[in-house]
Specification:
The protein has 508 residues and is mainly α. The protein has 15 helices and 10 strands. Among the domains are: 239 residues, Serine Threonine Protein Phosphatase 5, Tetratricopeptide repeat (Alpha Horseshoe), CATH 1.25.40; 59 residues, no CATH class.
């Protein structure tokens, strides 16, 4: 039977699904403007129909650039994933509970229609689909064009971006792995690209199944990625072997698999201080003496395992700096200003008496000097003003070290190497403090506190709360509406599946 559709209806349906699922009838190709650092700064240039997107090596290379550009979109690692993670986790206070700037996430009042919930999911699955379309095209045609070596390199890069994206989604939309050993519902595990009006019905795989796919992607990547690139900028902004290894320490820690955290970390962490990488065939990583260099141009320190690059023609639409930096009135003396959407909760980690004022990381907190908000604290870790071109770290070497320290403590109790690593991380910013934990619980407590300080403002804290089964703490700012704590058994502990997914996926 021949069915004739109304053309307007077809167009409307088609555009809606393109908007949400990134149904790539045409594949976005991005080129990179040349700059002195050779870093990845993708700029949209043109569109090439997917039938011809894999015909030349140049077009395939441009598609890789496009995958990084999609991954760093505002809705995902460009800012929203990190911003909303921090808004939940209790170290920041929303100045006005603006629902367009993470206010509902901050107040733990999200529902399936909340824009935050839909934005991250949409950008994440757009990224996943772009990776899947690319991987399908490489298998069908691209390998013959670029050869085995570049095929392995490019497909490994796509799989890392897909893996990080799935990991990010799990931290917001799924129950922690520790609950029921990952058998709870996770995410729709999409591994094939959608380039047309296909059937989008797909049930959620379990949390464990999604983590296994993430690890499969990262294991493939470790084998097939380059050991290093020609410049420090590319080693920072493009994934390489150490990136895959470092990310696996994060994933295994989220799963509570401490043995494999140690196995992976040992590939890139020396057995004793100063805890530098010893495999010279790969990129060399260490802790720079001054942590502030990690967050300053050229953003290519030995600590930077993988960071997202931005430039003036390629700035995020809603950046971390714009939200975290105070406005001009509250930021006198800072040298740059934002919108002042989130300030530092003075009763959070900033109040820790063991975080000394002389600790170099205290320089990332700015205090309003005068006016009605005198004394208010702000995060200035991302300190470049408009157009907000700070690089965003996806993973740093200090996280690998603290992942390893935590795993060793869980396995061995009062482990000497774990204590030494903890002191190395603290010591590079505060040489006057030397930890001497008294037992396993004390050591683990100090490691978790160190993570709060070290990764303050980088979106790590929410994932730590989830994997440890800890409550999302109450926010009790002076003169503002308090937000009660959310316990792991509460319905708002994780985000709901968004309306946009259930609209097209009837098996969700």
């Amino acid at each position: 039977m021949k069915i004739i559709f109304n053309q307007n209806l077809i167009n409307s349906l088609f555009m809606k699904r393109i908007k949400y699922y990134s149904l790539l009838i045409m594949i976005s190709i991005y080129s990179f403007s040349c700059n002195k650092t050779d870093s990845l700064n993708p700029i949209p240039t043109t569109l090439i129909a997917d039938a011809s997107a894999f015909e030349t090596s140049a077009r395939i290379s441009n598609q890789i650039n496009g995958l990084y550009a999609t991954f760093k979109g505002t809705g995902l690692w460009g800012s929203a994933y990190i911003l909303y993670s921090e808004a939940r986790a209790g170290e920041f206070i929303s100045t006005n509970q603006n629902p367009l700037q993470g206010g509902l996430t901050y107040m733990m009042l999200t529902d399936p229609g909340t824009s935050d919930v839909n934005l991250v999911w949409q950008q994440a699955y757009q990224t996943i689909n772009a990776c899947n379309v690319f991987l399908d095209g490489m298998d069908a045609q691209g390998k013959k064009v670029v050869g085995d070596t570049l095929y392995s390199n490019y497909t490994a890069e796509a799989k890392v971006l897909r893996a990080v994206t799935y990991y990010s989604l799990l931290q917001l939309y799924a129950r922690p792995y520790r609950e029921n050993n990952g058998k709870n519902p996770g995410l729709p595990l999409r591994l094939k690209g959608n380039t047309g009006l296909d059937n989008y019905n797909l049930a959620r795989s379990s949390v464990d199944e999604v983590y296994k796919q993430i690890l499969a992607d990262l294991n493939y990547a470790e084998t097939n990625l380059p050991a290093k690139y020609a410049t420090a900028a590319l080693n920072t902004t493009r994934v390489q072997k150490n990136t895959a290894i470092a990310l696996k320490t994060r994933v295994y820690l989220a799963m509570g698999d401490y043995t494999n955290v140690v196995n992976e970390a040992n590939k890139i962490v020396s057995t004793a201080a100063p805890f530098v990488t010893t495999n010279t065939s790969n990129t060399t990583h260490s802790l720079p003496a001054d942590i502030t260099t990690v967050f300053k141009t050229p953003y290519t320190s030995t600590e930077s395992i993988f960071s997202i690059a931005f430039a003036s023609g390629d700035a995020p639409g809603n950046s971390l700096a714009a939200n975290f930096l105070p406005n001009s009135a509250d930021g006198v003396g800072l040298g740059s200003a934002g919108t002042g959407q989130f300030y530092v909760f003075s009763a959070g980690i900033a109040s820790d008496v063991n975080w000394k004022t002389t600790d170099k990381r205290r320089s990332f907190i700015f205090t309003t000097a005068s006016g009605t908000n005198k004394g208010r604290l702000w995060c200035s870790k991302f300190a470049v003003g408009t157009p907000y071109t700070d690089y965003i770290p996806v993973i740093r070497y200090s996280e690998v070290l603290l992942n390893l320290a935590e795993a060793l403590a869980n396995l061995n109790g009062l482990d000497a190497r774990s204590i030494a690593i903890l002191n190395a991380v603290r010591g590079r910013s505060d040489a006057t403090t030397i930890f001497k934990p008294t037992d396993k619980a004390d050591l683990l407590s100090k490691i978790i506190t160190e993570r709060r300080i070290e990764f303050f403002g980088e979106g790590v804290r929410n994932g730590d709360l989830m994997r440890l089964g800890l409550p999302i703490p109450a926010k009790t700012p002076v003169g503002s509406t308090p937000v009660p704590a959310s316990n792991p058994t509460d319905g708002n502990y994780i985000w709901p599946i968004p309306n946009n997914e259930s609209l097209y996926n009837k098996l969700i």
